[in-house]
Amino acid sequence: MTDYKSTLNLPDTQFPMRGDLPKREPERLKAWQEGNVYGQMRAARQGRPSFVLHDGPPYANGDIHIGHAVNKVLKDMIVKSKVLSGFDAPYIPGWDCHGLPIELNVEKVKGKVGVKLDARAFRQACRDYADTQVARQKKDFQRLGVLADWEAPYLTKDVSFEANQLRALAKIVDNNHLYLGLKPVYWSVGAQSALAEAEVEYADKRSNAIDVAFVVVDPDQIFSRWDATHLPNRGEGRCSVVIWTTTPWTLPANEAVALNAELEYALVQIERDGMAERIVVALGLLEAIMGRYGIADYQVLATGSGAGLEGLLLQHPFLDKQVPVIVGEHVTLDAGTGAVHTAPAHGVEDFQVGMRYNLPVNCPVDGSGRYIDGTPLFAGDSVLSVDAKVLEILREKSVLIHHQAITHSYPHCWRTKTPLIFRATPQWFISMEQAGLRDQALAAIPKVNWIPEWGQGRINAMIDGRPDWCISRQRHWGVPIAIFVHKQTQQMHPRTSELLGLVANLVEKDGIDAWYELDAASLLGHEASEYEKVQDILDVWFDSGVTHSCVLETREGVSRPADLYLEGSDQHRGWFQSSLLTSLAMDGTAPYKSVLTHGFTVDADGKKMSKSKGNVVAPQEICDKLGADILRLWIASSDYRYEMTVSSEIIARIADSYRRIRNTARFLLANLKGFKPEQALPLTELVALDQWVVHRAHHIQQQVIADYDAYQFHQIVQAVHHFCAVDLGAFYLDIIKDRQYTAKRGSRAHRSVQTALYHLLQALVRWIAPVLSYTSDEIWQTMRTELGDMESPVVFTAHWYDGLRPLLSEQTSFDEGFWQSMMDLRDQVNKQLEVQRAAGTIKGSLTAEVTLFVDESWQSRLALLGDELRFVLITSAVFVKPLAQATEDAVASELTGVSLVVMPTAHAKCERCWHHRDDVGTYEGYEGICGRCVDNVAGEGEVRHYA
RNA sequence: UGGCCUGUAGCUCAGUUGGUUAGAGCGCACCCCUGAUAAGGGUGAGGUCGGCCGUUCAAAUCGGCCCAGGCCAACCA
């Protein structure tokens, strides 16, 4: 028996079937870094229109988690696709390096400022710590296959950044947005600093809820004010208004008791500890209150509105002063007594209502949470542990009506986890109104392209309702608010903007320490003694907020406004907003043209990931176990605009589809063995089926490019995978295997299919490049080795493949509809093949012959293929007969006008092409093979026109 | 508690302005192939479109309520 295998064109390639990604990706990454692929990408598009995606800086603390990976990979996919589309797309990564989390980590190791080291040494330690964090995160980001300017990222701790930040602040001062105000702010006793709202988190806290009597100085006034002097019974005993509070420590700062003007209040006669007593509480809460106090016998003496009592004087429960009753809409019947203890220094609403009544804002608590010297009774005590003492004093004074411990959700410091207090302190604010910033922002929002669209409504609502931005922090690791304030008037120096510029120049040389070490006289001269240097630093949200200026306006290749900001949806409150506000405050323009958001990752049950739940998926682990391309493919295949679900099943499915795409590429490569691009046939001369697949690929490519432009990566993955699995695997490649393997090497029939495969591969390798970057480059390098020169040394500097054309038109016989009908026909034939296979009459489809009984419409269509129809159906023979001649065993198909019979072949198997043909054995010297194989082995090679 | 968003087969996604028996791929089951072989092909079973109530001749598509989940915010003086 002759061995014909050597006469076949069997697949062969160095490209391995298995990716072995965890091992091979790091090697490839190394090559990219050594070859400076990012630099090549920039160089290849020099002078081309740019696309600026501005990277939001992750905080330089802790290892990256899956959310970081999602964010950076999405950006990377966009940048790579833009380069393929011909744009110069710089990608300058950044890190947020100042701020409390780093300080706290440094404190843990080095101790607090002033204890073991001074502020300067502390800041240096922070700098060093940030460097280590940046290095760790950078390594992980690079491992993901993200190509960016990793050698020159922007760091908010760079002295040039710090200097530019001060210049940005100067512009904001110039535009009159900054003011120094006294306000109750969230104050962390643990961190000894004011906190931004973003730094606050809620947690359950056990508190002492107490009801305290504020004795009415002149009880008769209640009756007169309520127009109730006619009542015969005015009751007996002490008369008081009872408040309810869960923060006993704020009582020393009490300045008033607030009632709701509209609510009905009652003066109630009760007996407590055997003593007759009268109390004023909200009528609507009376039953609940009496229940709480355990008082069954009580009598309402009089009722009246809260408004009626406005101005009534009350005795402070333990301080030697009298406070007024005031009214405010914030008082409700939700809880308590309907009478609210008001300490303007310790609550926002208290502060606001206090302003209306010109109440003093005396804050008796210092930054460490202790009552300041001179505070009666409590000087030196800590507010966090003073409750017991307050209660004891209230009991002594007999004004503690009730006490119980409650557990409620309470604001805590996000870092130190200590309960927060509100504390009125001098703070720096960017005003939303003073120079019209809010209106400016609301006007700018509709001009930005928000993706998805609901982002617009969201940020609009947030801007609309937000308070002034408190940008000062009483910490050490950050950019100083380098402003001189007049010691007496507390006014900013008239030349503040100019002075900021001078300080910026110093900071640019020596870093932020320059401010603290600055001799005021060197800038202010003789005025120096009248001014003091502000010691506060800027909120880190300000740092990252001004990257549009400090990065986009200073780095080569980028410009402001950016084409795109891309972050998680939480950044509507964070970076999107801080960037917008600072940008508008500086020069009245928005920092971005488009804002794209992605959702958060959740587990299989749609629950958020958290360490405590143990449902976190680490990107490092996926890279190490399966490879970065698997992680990237998961990111690309999720509709990231909403929640992104990760689970082991999802990752397993992703790995499956990865293999499908990889093996498709491998099969294409393997069948191009011996092919040189210059041997490609003109597209119009290809076998009809090959024209179809090129046409189809062209169509897919249009869709792929459109989806990249719309950042719809999951549609790309679906389309490419579908193309590989359905168009190619289940149809085209299955059919052309016969011709590819058995046609005479180098014949037109063979070159035609290789030409098509070549174009497919060229297109496919580019389609997947932004997503499966490692694999795409692996394919690309194999192509360079096995096929010769490529457009560029790396796929990332190439353009979308331009070798595809739409070849099928309505004018040709072989239009899209024709091939669709062939697929439909194949489905029907396959069903019958399956029936026969199950019955045991046939095995593979080449052991079968099929007879089609068709109507005239089908007959004319099938006639176009002639004898090549059998290759489309992958059977050894096909007989087409008129429907009228259908035999009894013919089975009606689901297609109108088609019945068919599948039968086992009676002929011998050609040992070369494996078709069963009646002419096998009829050729002398070639006894084992069929006629066309004889032609392919010894003759000119068979001719194929259609399949 | 409020604002915004999400909820279609085990998984990832399609489902145009409401209109015939809701689609695809993957996975799964069974079969075939052994010249893509830790690959490839075929057939098949899977969904009361989160739930309920409405509008309509007709709803996965419109409205209301509810449930689950996500992001953000607020609250509990």
Short description:
The protein is an alpha/beta fold. The protein is built from 29 helices and 32 strands.
Explained architecture:
The chain is α/β, with parallel strands linked by helices and 947 residues long. It has 29 helices and 32 strands. Strands 6, 7, 8, 9, 10, 11, 12, 13, 14 and 15 form a ten-stranded mixed beta sheet that branches. It has a four-stranded parallel beta sheet with strand order 1-23-24-17, with helices on both faces. Helix 20 packs across helix 21 and helix 23 (713-742) runs antiparallel to helix 24. The longest helix has 30 residues, at 713-742. The protein binds one RNA strand of 77 nucleotides through strand 6, strand 7, strand 14, strand 15 and helix 12.
| Average pLDDT rating | 90
**Structural class given helices, strands, pairing?**
alpha/beta
Segments where pLDDT lies below 50 for 5+ residues? Answer: none
How many angstroms separate the termini? 30 Å
Count of DSSP H/I helices: 29
Labels describing this entry:
29 helices, alpha/beta, 32 strands, RNA-binding, 39% helix, ten-stranded mixed beta sheet, four-stranded parallel beta sheet, 947 residues, elongated, single chain
Write the layout of secondary structure elements.
Elements: H1 21-34, H2 37-44, E1 53-54, H3 66-84, E2 94-95, H4 100-110, H5 119-143, E3 154-155, H6 159-174, E4 178-188, E5 193-194, E6 200-216, H7 220-225, E7 238-245, E8 256-259, E9 264-272, E10 275-282, H8 286-293, E11 299-305, E12 313-315, E13 322-327, E14 339-342, H9 348-356, H10 387-396, E15 400-413, E16 420-430, H11 437-444, E17 449-451, H12 454-465, E18 469-470, E19 472-473, E20 484-486, H13 496-510, H14 513-517, H15 520-524, E21 531-533, E22 537-538, H16 540-545, H17 547-550, E23 562-568, H18 575-587, E24 592-598, E25 601-602, H19 619-625, H20 628-637, E26 644-645, H21 648-670, H22 688-709, H23 713-742, H24 748-767, H25 773-787, H26 816-839, E27 848-854, H27 856-863, H28 869-873, E28 877-882, E29 891-892, E30 898-904, E31 908-909, E32 916-917, H29 931-938
Parallel strand pairs: 1-23, 2-3, 7-10, 8-13, 17-24, 23-24, 25-26, 27-28
Antiparallel strand pairs: 4-5, 4-16, 6-7, 6-12, 6-15, 8-14, 9-10, 9-11, 12-13, 16-18, 19-22, 20-21, 27-30, 29-30, 31-32
Helix pairs in contact: 4-5, 6-13, 6-18, 11-18, 19-20, 20-21, 20-23, 21-23, 21-25, 22-23, 22-24, 23-24
This protein binds one RNA strand of 77 nucleotides through strand 6, strand 7, strand 14, strand 15 and helix 12.
